[in-house]
Amino acid sequence: MDIARDATLHQRILNELESQIVSGAWPPGHRLPFEVDLAKQYGCSRMTVNKVMTQLAKAGLIERRKKSGSFVTQPQAQSAVLEIHDIKTEVASLKLAYSYALLATTEREADIEDRRRLDLEKPGPVLEVRCMHLAAGDPFCLEERLINLEVVPDARHADFSNVAPGPWLLERAPWTAAQHQIQAVGADRETAKLLKLKPETACLVIERRTWNTFGPVTHVRFTYPGTRHRVVADFQPSSSQPR
Amino acid sequence: MDIARDATLHQRILNELESQIVSGAWPPGHRLPFEVDLAKQYGCSRMTVNKVMTQLAKAGLIERRKKSGSFVTQPQAQSAVLEIHDIKTEVASLKLAYSYALLATTEREADIEDRRRLDLEKPGPVLEVRCMHLAAGDPFCLEERLINLEVVPDARHADFSNVAPGPWLLERAPWTAAQHQIQAVGADRETAKLLKLKPETACLVIERRTWNTFGPVTHVRFTYPGTRHRVVADFQPSSSQPR
DNA sequence: AAGTGGTCTAGACCACATG
DNA sequence: ATGTGGTCTAGACCACTTG
């Protein structure tokens, strides 16, 4: 906890509150101390605390309610930018029946390729999960995931035959940073077979790495039949709207 | 200018400064009034002005330099999220020679499809521009663009044979909101021919709509040979880093 | 009615970069 | 050295919502 030694008072308070939240010490729904109390605790004025709380609220980590206090929001408010797709929700919004199938899980020491995918500096144990998401019984999306067992050791004993690793992780290992890569590729033979496509059909591949304060959490590659999926990102540069 | 009647003082000042910037009245490089002067002008304390300026800086609209003042940043600070690709820069970063070729321009009344692409409510004049971006003489990306002539009438007489419409627009019609859509498609015959690919090769299609305060500005569709291009988006939910 | 966050003030001191 | 933004204070009033 020696991060941010000579930062501003803001930053120090922000970091401390933030780590309470992302570490899970303050779970979703938890009420934060009131501004006046935090001000006393840190020996500063309320304005300073207010600034921090306002930032946390803007970042979506907490929700503020007058007369009641400030509360940690549900798992992750990644709504800001490039949404983290919950595939189940996505399929449901298309009014199709969702189902899920586990293909395989493998535990191993990270090889070179694994370390590249996970942004891992040292070798370490990883869990690979391959699974399929289906809509109305048809292949919707292939998921190939790598989980860093050093950061999420519980994943070793998780049962992914009924719960997809995405939702499972979201509850247990909140992330603080994410990187997306999107590209188009022609389906290779195995992918084509799984998705029931002709080989070389254009597919949209979305890769996402996520980190929390303890390091890389997971790398996941979603392969969608190309024309059946779009990524949408809205963007407004300034901070006008009240939201 | 009757927006935001009963907003907070913050909001009012923010809106006014922001519109000076996005309207172009304060062009890139322009020095904003000092905090103390703005405080006098609005009859408020410096803290209030400071809060606004801090927000503008976070949003990337201005840059603040001690002892010098605050300055409007270059055209658009879309660096935040899903970067607006300047293809010339992109090619340059690959250390390849960039070149550009205009294919065709067409002026017409917006048809149904044009209105859908531009998010246009009423019919109106539009300009279609098709052009190619090349890297080391090879096709790099096909650009198909629609410009709303009601918002950017000057485009009618612009010469796009040497300057790509992207950079041209960026200087003349700053945008305030953008939406991206990304998908993978198999190249149709014409696209394949232009990009020198086999038909049905996987391509990454990035579509972008942009708006400013006067309405839809432009819709553009970039088609890249799939494996040769990736979209990358970093995302950090909270506001920790000093950047 | 009371307690919370939202906003604002009129000062202050400091670090920093140099019209 | 000077003037700028960065930060912080110790108050204050208001609006909202309801332990």
CATH class bucket of the largest domain in chain A: Alpha Beta
Instruction: Give the oligomer, counting copies of the same chain as homo and different chains as hetero.
Output: homodimer
The portion of residues assigned to helices of chain A is 25-40%
What percentage of amino acids of chain A are in beta strands?
A: 25-35%
Can you tell me the residue ranges of chain A where pLDDT is under 50 for at least 5 consecutive residues? Answer: 77-81, 239-243
Helix/strand class of chain A? alpha+beta
Distance from N terminus to C terminus of chain A (CA atoms, Å) equals 34 Å
Helix and strand pattern of chain A: HHHEEHEHEEHEHEEE
Biggest interface, chains and residues, is: A-B, 48 and 48 residues
**Helical stretch count of chain A?**
7
CATH H level, superfamily name of the largest domain in chain A: Chorismate lyase-like
**CATH fold call of the largest domain in chain A:** Chorismate lyase
* Largest β sheet strand count, sense and barrel closure of chain A: 6 strands, antiparallel
GO biological process, one term (chains A, B): L-histidine metabolic process
Keywords (chains A, B): DNA-binding, Transcription, Transcription regulation
GO molecular function (chains A, B): DNA binding; DNA-binding transcription factor activity
Protein name (chains A, B): Histidine utilization repressor
